[in-house]
Structure formats: structure tokens, C-alpha cells
């Protein structure tokens, strides 16, 4: 059954949250001539406050004025505000539609949307696709959950293709959002604190990326991911399914055969030996397969795909080699905000590792890391306000474990624990908000502390 398109009343828009997505939505609403008001619980950054003043957009900080918010015809909320927040509950009860910024932006865009989601790898795949599109001379913008918000992109300039990284929080607030190509990389437990600690709720959120697609659209998905496989059996999908697999040869889709990627989706199969990929590691092979398959669907030349895969330099804060000091390699994997991402990082370690871990626990199950910690980790440096769960999980796995609550201390302790030939790995497996603004701030503080040794 085809879902009817949701129609919105844009006469009086309230934006909840004054971060990157909220600012983008406010600027787009003002650009379209709508009445708009932004409400932010905390203080706004100076740059954002100035932007609102420049565009004559009224706003408030420090609190949410209920009367103004409940007078809205439509509320666009920040992904960071949960549906359980009192203000959202009251708005919903009052019958006011509450949507995410990507939904609002999509209502004002007729361009082709390529949307990438997954628990891990989505920034790498989005960035790799951005590199591919640039090399192919494709008129595109890139952003969403990284970089510029979708709404800001729509405000600034037209483009043939909108390449977006999208999170589950953003997908929770869509009704009509419809990508031409949706990419679903993997679904492993993450953000369970936002989903009643139920993995099936989080999985359902990720599957929403394809809910409005039709037979002219594509869902590129990981056929090796059991959770996605189960969800596809029970979720009605109308788009063309395009699988990729590292474990089985597929007649249609992307496969890994004899250390060579093979993509068979049309009359001209694409092949590329793994040794030619600039990105190394098993997880990056899957990322490359997803990106190359998407590029092939968009009719990008095979030679362009091949050259792009060879020249892509990777993403900041994702297994980023920082410095080698006294024959110790320091690696910044601050973007590993969940257990599965840290699993990939630890699995790729080849030397004895001093592991810096910790932050805001999101309902993590650390048991899947035990064998990797036993195999690769010689010492653990905890970095967080509350390290009790990590101490409890790994206390018996290593001989040395030290608790710290600042990046400088963590790096200094790691420096003392590491010997020549070792690796110091920041791969927190947790969110950053206890001690840092975000994972980027955490990664940059790590690099600064390392350079200060």
C-alpha cells in the first residue's frame, strides 16, 4: 500500500534547538518568507546569534516559552531533543506536527537525494561518495549529520544531487523524506538510551530511510548484517534492493571474490582488487563496496570510481594516525562513539595497545570486546566522569588500568604506560558529552595533548 504524502502548514514555524540543524532550518524558513521563531534552552553561540539577528529571525535562549511554541503550525526539532521531552509531548498532544530538519529541507528540495545511514561507517562512506562525486564532476552538496545541514544547503544553492549522512534521530522525524538511493551499512546496538533500551526500536528507526521509496529508487544494504536481513523480512520495501556482501557471491549486487570487489548490477560489471583501495581494514572494504555500488547506480564511470577509491584519504577522527613519539604510534579514533566502532579499531591493532576509553555510556554491552582486549590491549586508561562500568567490564582483562578525567591526564598516563613499538589508541566506545563538546572536540584535544608531549 502506497503511503499518502503528508502535507504541512508552513504559516508559523517554531524551531526547537539552536545548533547546526536548527540554524539551517531557521534560515531556510526565513528565506522562504515564513513566520519563524527559534527557541533554544541553552545560550547560542555568538556566530549563530549574529546570523539570526542579521536575518531578523526572532529567538529566545535559556528557556522554552510554552505559549509561543504551542502557537506553531509546525515544529522543527533538533535531533538532540528526544521525543520524550516534556515540550515535545505537549506539542504532540496539541496536535502540532513535530519533524526533523531533513524532513523540512526535503519539502523544499526537488533534487536527487542520496542518503547514507548505519551505526558505523556512515561518515566514511558519505565522505568517500563526496570524493567520488567531485572526481566525476557531479553537481552536488554534502552534509546532513556532518558538515552543513541539509536545510542550509537548500538555502544556499541549487544542486543536482544532495548527498546526506543521516542519523536515526533525524529519521525518527520524517514523514515524506525520500532518497533516490538509500544506503544502509549496518545496524548494531547504539543510542539505546533513546530507544527504551530496545534494539528492535533502534533497528526500526534505521529502516525508516527506505519507507517512502518506490520502484524507481534503490536501497543499497549490507547482506551480511543479520539485523538488516531480519528487518527486510518484516518491513515492506518497494525500492530495488541492492545487496553487498563480503561473505557470499551475489548474482546481483556487490561481492568480495578472491580479494577483489565485484559489482554486478548492469551489463558492465566493475572489479577492483582490495590492494588498490586507499582505505585499509575489513570494515573499510565494506564501506568501499557500499560507496562503489552507489556510484555505479548513479552511472559514474568505472575508471572514475577506481581512481577515487585509490585516492581517498579517509576521515578525521576515524583511526587517524596522529604522531609517532619514541617509536609509539598515537591513533585518534574519537569518532568511535559506540562499542561496534571500537570493535573495528581494536581488531585492526597489530601492536600491543594502550587503550583510552570512556565517556557517556549509551547502554553499552562491552562483552563483545573481551577477546580483542585480551589479545591486543596491555593497559587501559579510562577517560570519563564516571568510569565504573568500564572498570567493572575490563578490570580483570588487563594488569594496568588508570582512571583520568581530562584529556591531558589521559595522554600523559598513556605516554608513561607505552613502550617502544606500542600503540596508544583513543577509541572511546562512548559519547563525549561528559567532558567535551562533541567527538570532534575530544579528537582535537587528543591531538593537541599528543603534540604537547
UniProtKB/TrEMBL annotation:
Protein name, per record: UDP-N-acetylmuramoylalanine--D-glutamate ligase
UniProt domain Mur ligase central: residue ranges: 116-294
Natural source organism: Nonlabens agnitus
GO cellular component, one term: cytoplasm
UniProt cross-references to Gene3D superfamilies, sorted A to Z: Mur ligase, C-terminal domain, Mur-like, catalytic domain, NAD(P)-binding Rossmann-like Domain
GO biological process, one term: peptidoglycan biosynthetic process
Gene: murD
Family: Belongs to the MurCDEF family.
Annotated function: Cell wall formation. Catalyzes the addition of glutamate to the nucleotide precursor UDP-N-acetylmuramoyl-L-alanine (UMA).
Major subcellular location class: cytoplasm
Subcellular location: Cytoplasm
Molecular-function annotations in GO: ATP binding; UDP-N-acetylmuramoylalanine-D-glutamate ligase activity
Amino acid at each position: 500500500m502506497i503511503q499518502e504524502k503528508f502535507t504541512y502548514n508552513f504559516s508559523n514555524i517554531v524551531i526547537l534547538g539552536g545548533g547546526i540543524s536548527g540554524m539551517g532550518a531557521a534560515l531556510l524558513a526565513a528565506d522562504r518568507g515564513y513566520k519563524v521563531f527559534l527557541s533554544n534552552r541553552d545560550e547560542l553561540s555568538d556566530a549563530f546569534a549574529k546570523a539570526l539577528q542579521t536575518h531578523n529571525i526572532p529567538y529566545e535562549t535559556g528557556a522554552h516559552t510554552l505559549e509561543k511554541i504551542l502557537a506553531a503550525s509546525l515544529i522543527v526539532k533538533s535531533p538532540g531533543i528526544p521525543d520524550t521531552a516534556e515540550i515535545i509531548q505537549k506539542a504532540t498532544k496539541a496536535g502540532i506536527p513535530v519533524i526533523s530538519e531533513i524532513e523540512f529541507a526535503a519539502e523544499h528540495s526537488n533534487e536527487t537525494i542520496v542518503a547514507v545511514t548505519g551505526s558505523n561507517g556512515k561518515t566514511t562512506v558519505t565522505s568517500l561518495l563526496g570524493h567520488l562525486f567531485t572526481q566525476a564532476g557531479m553537481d552536488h552538496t554534502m552534509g546532513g549529520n556532518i558538515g552543513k545541514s541539509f536545510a542550509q544547503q537548500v538555502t544556499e544553492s541549487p544542486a543536482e544531487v544532495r548527498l546526506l549522512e543521516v542519523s536515526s534521530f533525524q529519521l525518527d522525524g520524517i514523514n515524506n523524506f525520500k532518497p533516490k538511493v538509500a544506503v544502509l551499512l549496518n545496524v548494531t546496538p547504539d543510542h539505546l538510551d533513546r530507544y527504551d533500551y530496545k534494539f528492535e526500536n533502534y533497528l526500526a528507526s534505521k529502516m525508516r530511510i527506505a519507507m517512502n521509496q518506490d520502484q524507481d529508487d534503490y536501497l543499497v544494504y549490507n547482506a551480511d548484517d543479520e539485523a538488516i536481513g531480519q528487518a527486510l523480512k518484516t518491513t515492506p520495501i518497494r525500492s530495488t534492493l541492492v545487496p553487498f556482501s563480503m561473505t557470499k557471491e551475489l548474482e546481483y549486487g556487490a561481492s568480495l571474490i578472491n580479494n577483489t570487489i565485484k559489482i554486478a548490477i548492469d551489463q558492465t560489471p566493475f572489479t577492483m582488487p582490495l590492494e588498490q583501495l586507499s582505505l585499509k581494514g575489513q570494515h573499510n572494504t565494506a564501506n568501499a563496496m557500499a560507496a562503489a555500488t552507489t556510484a555505479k547506480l548513479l552511472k559514474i564511470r568505472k575508471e572514475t570510481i577506481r581512481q577515487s577509491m585509490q585516492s581517498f584519504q579517509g576521515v578525521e577522527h576515524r583511526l587517524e594516525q596522529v604522531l609517532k613519539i619514541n617509536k609509539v604510534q598515537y591513533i585518534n579514533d574519537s569518532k568511535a562513539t559506540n562499542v561496534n566502532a571500537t570493535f573495528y579499531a581494536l581488531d585492526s591493532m597489530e601492536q600491543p595497545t594502550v587503550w583510552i576509553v570512556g565517556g557517556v555510556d549509551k547502554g553499552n554491552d562491552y562483552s563483545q570486546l573481551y577477546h580483542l582486549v585480551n589479545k591486543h590491549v596491555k593497559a587501559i586508561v579510562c577517560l570519563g566522569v564516571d568510569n565504573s562500568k568500564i572498570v567493572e567490564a575490563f578490570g580483570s582483562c588487563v594488569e594496568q588500568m588508570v582512571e583520568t578525567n581530562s584529556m591531558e591526564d589521559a595522554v600523559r598516563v598513556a605516554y608513561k604506560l607505552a613502550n617502544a613499538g606500542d600503540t596508544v589508541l583513543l577509541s572511546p566506545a562512548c559519547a563525549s558529552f561528559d567532558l567535551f563538546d562533541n567527538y570532534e572536540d575530544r579528537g582535537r584535544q587528543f591531538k593537541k595533548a599528543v603534540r604537547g608531549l
